[in-house]
Amino acid sequence: MPVQITKLLVANRGEIAVRIFRTCRRLGIATVAVYSDADRAAMHVREADEAVHIGAAPAAESYLRTDAILAAAAETGADAIHPGYGFLSENAAFAEAVLAAGLAWLGPPPAAIRSMGPKDEAKRIAEEAGVPVLPGYRGEAQDIGTLTKAAENVGYPLLIKAVAGGGGRGIRQVSRAADLQAELTSAVREAESSFGDGRVMLEKLIERPRHIEVQVFGDQHGNVVHLFERDCSLQRRRQKVIEEAPAPGMPDAVRKAMTDAAVKLAKAVGYQGAGTVEFIVDGSKPLGPDTFWFLEMNTRLQVEHPVTEAITGTDLVEWQLIVASGGKLPLKQKDIKLTGHAFEARICAEDPAEGFRPGAGLILEFGLLEEPDGETLRWDSGFDSGDRIPSSYDSMIAKLIVHGETREAALQRLTDVLAHTQLCGVPANTGFLRRCALSGEFQSGTHHVNWIGENLDALAAVPEIHRTAALGAVAAVLLDDEGAVSPWDLHDGFRLNAAPRRAIQLAADGAAQLFDAGQPLPEEAPFPLVTDLSPRRFAVTCGGDTFLVTIPEFSADADAALGGNVVKAPMPGKVLSVLAKAGAQVTRGETLAVLEAMKMEHALTAPRDGVIEAIHASAGQQVAEGDVLVMLVEE
């Protein structure tokens, strides 16, 4: 008789914790969140039935602390732990500690995690199971002589890969023998820093690779099934950007060969729970039984699992709960059907034009124009408007998932929804995602892992037409004459003895300009979505790119001239330095603090001569618009 889980602790944060809690709520299972100092007011804390503080903001002092997580489970009476993904999700020692504490573990057996962790060991097991593996070197000897000879045998170009690697770290491409030693040194150094293990392996490089993976699921009764494949070839710096299921152009025979190989590997390691078998595919050729090779196995629930749920009509978290409770898989292989096509776009607080620089701070506006229905449109988010994004963790904050009857229908849905996905107050990649999805290569399914890198400048640049349309939309709102009761209320640009001129001073993301409201907007400009944040601020999304459009506050200069007692943050940003000291005498115009906002540094000066009464900010602090940073003595 399966053991019924009654209270689940999620040892994670953000959108995956929220997503797990919602399945638990539907099933009547109580939930426990854990949180760091940085996540005290986070959405996953609000969504859980109970929440326990486990440490400081750095992950090593909170989400990576086995002792704190197990103590939280004991404190709340949780009888199961879900690791989410990242953090401790593929840590065999953590899984063993959970099981030793008498708790149900929503993950694979620790032995399976260990066998699939080191890439060299995983490939050895795959070879023994009859799963195709790329030519390479996976030996124990790590001296330069052995590796140089092995590289000659593998042939150039090749990849150096950290044996304990993940997340794209510890990987170097080598095109010629003369570069091998320098790249080895670099890869080993990064591997030791990231994983505490500097061992590397060599692998033949596929120059136009596709990334296709198979979702597998096993139970404690020896049953293993697959839930078809996902294509995750749209990547930047080996990080996935948009995923889809099924893979475009996948013939039935190749699908069978690939899914059979994945199931065979899962059975070889006694796999239980959710797992993903990843394959590298030669994208320079049509998909065939001899064009794919085993890459690695992820022994956890993947970020992109919602696209599999969309095409199979399943809830994989519910399956995890069933398997962890000792139950059998809900469906047999013959009963798992593939229906339609699905895409997932990872919404990140990052600036593609600045090398994908992550952002942190207050979210002014976040969400979709239309309400998700959970079937054709799904929104998995760990943040909402008014939340603060901490700088301590990954930049991904939400996932947009769409489903359609065909790839073309689903892709049209994706680009339509991305056009008005609004994220204002922090950098956003939504416009970048839409430009990727609209590209001819992605539309035809001919993109590959290196495609973004080859086209980055065009994809990352924000079209000027989007900025112009955003300013025009706000100008139209501000100059709207509806409700005018007299000629003096009209904004028709009337000037005595001169041609009418309708112009208004506006700033888009901090750059002020006199905008001619009479100019016609280009017909090809996407329709802008305007959200009124306050009387002087608007969030405007056009073609997926969101701008904070403001009316410059020129009265602030007049206030300063007349004197004042406070120095406030003029916009959301990060305090770079505080030069003022309490009790110090300052003169009008003297720089008291420096704020980084809108990609620029802003010197905040004393509004008058006086004495500093108090300092309310420190270097590195994220502040919202209007936050008081420095106060002068009231006279």
Would you give an account of this structure?
With 635 residues, this protein is of the alpha+beta class. The protein has six domains: 7-106, Rossmann fold (3-Layer(aba) Sandwich); 118-134 and 208-339, ATP-grasp fold, B domain (D-amino Acid Aminotransferase, Chain A, domain 1), CATH 3.30.470.20; 136-204, ATP-grasp fold, A domain (Dna Ligase, domain 1); 340-461, D-amino Acid Aminotransferase, Chain A, domain 1; 466-480 and 499-550, no CATH class; 562-632, RNA polymerase II/Efflux pump adaptor protein, barrel-sandwich hybrid domain (OB fold (Dihydrolipoamide Acetyltransferase, E2P), Beta Barrel). It is 28% helix and 31% strand. The strands form nine sheets. It has an eight-stranded antiparallel beta sheet, with helices on both faces. Strands 3-2-1-4-5 form a five-stranded parallel beta sheet. α4 (92-100) packs antiparallel against α5 and α12 runs antiparallel to α13 (430-438). The longest helix is centred in the middle third of the chain and has 17 residues, at 252-268. The model is unreliable at 555-562 (pLDDT under 50).
What are its keywords?
6 domains; single chain; alpha+beta; globular; Dna Ligase, domain 1; 635 residues; five-stranded parallel beta sheet; D-amino Acid Aminotransferase, Chain A, domain 1; Rossmann fold; eight-stranded antiparallel beta sheet
* Estimated share of beta-strand residues: 25-35%
Range of helix content: 25-40%
Measured on Cα atoms, how large is the radius of gyration? 27 Å
As for the CATH topology of the largest domain, it is D-amino Acid Aminotransferase, Chain A, domain 1
Straight-line N-to-C gap:
77 Å
